[in-house]
Each structure stands twice: as structure tokens, then as C-alpha cells.
Amino acid sequence: MNYTTIFTDTNVVGFLLLFFRFGSLFIAVPIFSHQSIPMVLKSAMAFLFTIVFYSSMQPVTFEINLLNIIIALVSEIMFGLVIGVVLQLAFNVITFAGGLISFAMGFSMASAIDPQNGISMPIINQFLSLIALMVLFSLNLHHWMLLFIDSSLSHIPLGGFVMTKSLFTYMIQASANMFVVGFTIAFPIIALSWMADIIFGMLMKTMPQFNLLVIGFPIKIIISFAVLIAILASSMLILQAQMQDAFNWLEKLF
Q: pLDDT 10s digit of each residue in the chain, 254 long?
């Protein structure tokens, strides 16, 4: 076998760019970016998928020199990070709603280390985030991501990704949509919490012996948990719709 025809400059640079495309995705995209997955394993997965998808990529067309290689590597890193940010904005609808619900229930101080992001988050936030991850697995989001990469190889050449004005516009709209939809998900619990505060305030005016800390807060938490269980399925359906919209928009990159 003549290895000189395999390890050419074009093939080696193409393999490196494809590896960076997968690597940046595994760092930023939900599920793959989970902090519990060691970086060594992410690198090994990126290397494995680079070998698998190597035959699907288009040959490198730019001139092979140091400057062009650096620009192409930055382009591939930006491609993966942009895809990750778009999907994270759709996923953060649930985490933002969880933060609002935790605050309404009085659990904002009850926090622990989130295994996904490695930061301290309220426990209700973590609960919804883990449920959302299981929903994404049930929707085969990881399969969607690999199919998307396979399609991108035939439409976006390696090193050819460019940030556009429409991309910035969508990311701004998605950021605003994250707050709106997240508040919509948390609104039933927030509304009931406000109503409970009003009722407890009226009771304290009529019955000064009413102890809000002993009686009011447990009742408020029980009601919030009941409403949370009732809206959990619909919240996951909203998350599914948000992820689907994000993937539908990503197809416009082609």
C-alpha cells in the first residue's frame, strides 16, 4: 500500500479540521457537553467519529499554508460553538424556568453542584434539568446531532463556516425567547405563590397569631410541588418544541 497517497497535506488537514468540528460540538452541545463525561472520553469520541465520517467530507479546497489552516481551525471551532449555543438556548428554557420556580417556592438557597455544568444551582433547577436530559435522550437528540453533522459536511466545507447577520439576529431572538418561554412555564407556580402570599397576608391581618413560617411555607411548598407535577409533562413538550425549532433553524445554515 502506498501510504504517500493517503497521508497527503490535503487529507491530513481535512482530518484535523473534521476532528475540530466534532471536538467543538462535544464541548458545547447539550448531552455531549455534560461535565461528568471526562475530556479524554470526549476527545476519543471526536476522534472515532472523525474516522467514521472521514469518507463523507469534501476535500479541502483552500491553499495549504499556516495562515489558512489557522483560519480554518477557528472557523470549525466557531461552527461547533455556534451550534452548541443555539441548542443550549433552547435547552436553557427549562433551567431558567427551574430557577424561577425555585425562587417562588423558597428553594433558591437550597442549591447543590449541578453535574451537567459543574456550578451551584437550585435543586428544583437540577431536577428539571435532569428530567430534560432524559427527554432529550428519548428524542434521540444525539442521533439528530450526528445526522446534522453528516449533512453539514456536504453543504458547509471544512473551514468554510462564516458568521452571518441572520445568525446573530436569531441568537438574540432565541435569547429573548428563552426568558419568555421560561417564564411561561413557571407562571402557574409563580401565580399560585403570589395568591398564597396574598391569602397568608390577609390571614395574618385577621389572625395575628397565625405563624407564617411554621404553617404558611409548608403549605406553599406542597401546593407548588403539586402544580409542578401537573405541568411537568407539558413543560417537556415545550422543551421538545424548542429543540425542534432550533434544529429547523440550523438547517437554514445549509
A: 444 556 677 777 778 888 888 888 888 777 777 667 777 888 888 888 888 887 777 777 777 778 888 888 888 888 888 888 888 888 888 888 888 888 777 766 555 555 555 555 667 777 888 888 888 888 777 788 778 887 777 777 777 777 777 778 888 888 888 888 888 888 888 888 888 778 777 777 777 666 666 676 777 778 888 888 888 888 888 888 888 888 777 777 65
Amino acid at residue number 247? F
Predicted model pTM: 0.76
How many residues make up the chain in this entry? 254
